[in-house]
Amino acid sequence: MSESESVITQEMRDAIGVESNPVVYNIEKGAIIRFAQAIGDNNAIFNREDEARKTRYNGLVAPPTFLRSIAHVETPEPKISVSSPYPANVDGGSEWEYFEPIHAGDTITATTYLSDVNERKGGRFGNMLIMVRETKYVNQFGNVAALQRTTGISYQPPE
Amino acid sequence: MEQIYFDDVEEGSEVPTLRKDPTPQQLVKYAGASGDFYQIHYDVNFAKNNGLPDIILHGALKNAFLGQLMTDYVGHEGTLKKLSCQYRAMDIPGTPVFAKGTVVKKYVENSENVVECEIWLENEAGEKTTPGYAVVSLPNKS
Fold first, then answer.
1. pLDDT tens, B9-47?
2. Most C-beta atoms within 10 A of its C-beta, which of A99, A144, B19, B120?
3. Strand A107-123's sheet: what is its strand order?
């Protein structure tokens, strides 16, 4: 492949902004606690129901990046599926906006969509394709609880 | 948990450093809890075949460390509004990482006490592997 050839396809451009079908998640207390333990965060509001009840949260809530883990159980399937020609992947970065706490027992509906595609030749890992995906998490009251933007970098490993 | 107040904070104030000591075991625990089973985080041969020096921390785990930095900072009365980070360099388990931050702006907006912080993860050599940004709101003292 020549250095100047773009790997960004029309299909990728067409997929930008097209929301997936919604996926519904039940936020389980055990999953929150397991996540908090895995990241090594001992904060009472993420680990101990009795103590969390005495705070303004009035019960267990999820750590800031917990929502990322529920999307692994069943991922919202993009309406238009795009894939990179490069075989290896790294996580390029993440951005969260929070509007409401996520409580144990909440029902969260997620949709996802491609929000941006870029490429870089001869970057840190060689030729790279950079895709930004946005996921919107809506709670059972119909309020957007959080927005997540994730940058995925795929690359061609050096020979 | 000790509570910090808007009145306590000035531009240039430091966010108390959070030290984390990630191990291969923690990476496996995180893989299990998050469902991210990409092998570069626990299989050394797989990582090396993908041009990496060793297994590396999940970006999302580093994101979680920065989340903890900020939820520890704001206490139970403060609120995390925005959290972002970029993965500029890899971090390897078995060596400590330090989550740090500095207040860059404070202001009142729509009667909310907003504080903006530059945040980052630093390795033992003092390199910022994971720079980021956080926006929080803090309560008044009275």
1. 999 999 999 999 999 999 999 999 998 899 999 999 999
2. B120
3. A23-26, A107-123, A126-138, A144-155, A88-98, B79-86, B128-137, B112-122, B97-109, B14-20
The CATH homologous superfamily for domain B6-137 is Hotdog Thioesterase (3.10.129.10)
pLDDT in tens, A30-69: 999 999 999 999 999 999 999 999 999 999 999 999 998 8
Domain spanning A10-155: CATH 3.40.50.300:
no
Share of chain B above pLDDT 90, in %: 94
Shortest CA distance from A151: residue in chain B: B86
Contacts of B73 (CB under 8 A, 6+ apart): B4, B15, B16, B101, B117, B136
A72 touches chain B (CB under 8 A): yes
Smallest CA–CA separation between A136 and chain B, in Å? 14
B interface with A, Cβ–Cβ < 8 A, is: 1, 20, 26, 29-30, 32-36, 38, 40, 49-51, 58-61, 63-65, 67-68, 70-72, 76-77, 79-87
> What's the confidence (pLDDT) of residue A159?
66
Each residue's pLDDT tens digit, B94-104: 999 999 999 99
**CB–CB of B85 and A93 under 8 A?**
yes
A118, B25, B82, B126 from A112: Cα distances, Å: 18, 31, 19, 36
Classify residue A2 by its DSSP letter.
Answer: -
Write the residue in B38, B77, B80 that is nearest to A64 by C-beta. Answer: B80
